[in-house]
Design the sequence.
């Protein structure tokens, strides 16, 4: 069965707290799993969330700060320990190759899996499959950082009233889909384009062109909101976003479902910030910024369905 959902493994920036693990986000996309930014403790969070090493097909690292990458060593070794039978591909900034190498070979273990390294050096498409295209965009952070965008190919939505008007039914419906026309009737006459879904992942960054490009038209945008709006100067200085900034990006980009995450440890009361159903102050500031779509203030081990196709 086709499953498209985000599994939140951790939501803490810089250091974990009693209630928030370091970052970690698994996107289940039909039969594939894409693990984004595995911070320290990700392997244990996977166990708690019911995520297995066999579920992973790609690992995407935005940048090499510890809260986004220290879990790589454990995850890679687990992939090998469990003898994952399929290829696993790792994407990460090419400028951080030395960090990836250190994490991949942090300790002795037996390599049993073909882990393909696919470092990112510039904006553009980094992978194409039958089910999606994966792109990377440079962000603005003290170290080189990339965001990721997964885009499903556009499809076709058949229109029953037009099919009936042209007398097309049964096996002929499949035939016109395959061949593009039937008895003088074109596919455009009886269908319309169904826009492919878009999932965007934006971590540590200031506002920049890359943020807006990744968010544009996203069905789901997972984006850092390290600080509340009153700490905007800290956000600028350290290369981060506030809840209001992230929400304005989503508002202007037409995002359908906004997921805020990566919360500073300075907000120590989970009930007042990131763990209540209301989302507390993070949600209030996001709504005050004018975002009216579906909104989730993430907490660890949360599962968020990707919105259904339009």
Sequence:
């Amino acid at each position: 069965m086709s499953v498209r959902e985000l599994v939140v493994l951790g939501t803490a920036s810089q250091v974990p707290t009693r209630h928030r693990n370091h970052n970690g986000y698994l996107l289940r996309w039909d039969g594939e799993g894409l693990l984004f930014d595995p911070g320290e403790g990700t392997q244990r969070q996977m166990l708690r969330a019911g995520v297995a090493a066999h579920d992973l097909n790609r690992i995407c690292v935005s940048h090499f700060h510890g809260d986004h990458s220290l879990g790589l060593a454990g995850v890679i070794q687990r992939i090998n320990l469990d003898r994952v039978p399929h290829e696993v591909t790792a994407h990460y900034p090419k400028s951080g190759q030395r960090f990836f190498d250190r994490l991949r070979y942090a300790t002795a273990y037996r390599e049993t899996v073909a882990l393909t390294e696919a470092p990112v050096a510039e904006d553009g498409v980094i992978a194409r499959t039958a089910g999606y295209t994966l792109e990377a965009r440079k962000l603005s952070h003290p170290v080189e950082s990339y965001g990721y965008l997964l885009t499903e190919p556009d499809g076709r939505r058949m229109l029953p009233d037009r099919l009936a008007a042209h007398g097309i039914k049964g096996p002929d419906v499949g035939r016109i889909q395959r061949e593009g026309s039937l008895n003088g009737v074109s596919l455009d006459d009886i269908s319309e384009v169904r826009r492919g879904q878009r999932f965007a992942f934006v971590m540590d960054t200031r506002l920049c062109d890359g943020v807006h490009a990744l968010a544009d038209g996203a069905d789901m945008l997972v984006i850092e909101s390290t600080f509340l709006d009153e700490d905007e100067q800290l956000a600028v200085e350290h290369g981060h976003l506030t809840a209001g900034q992230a929400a304005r990006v989503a508002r202007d980009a037409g995002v359908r479902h906004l997921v805020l995450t990566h919360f500073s440890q300075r907000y120590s009361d989970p009930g007042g910030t990131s763990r209540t159903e209301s989302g507390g102050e993070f949600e209030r500031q996001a709504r005050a910024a004018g975002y009216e779509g579906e909104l989730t203030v993430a907490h660890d081990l949360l599962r968020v369905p990707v919105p259904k196709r339009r």
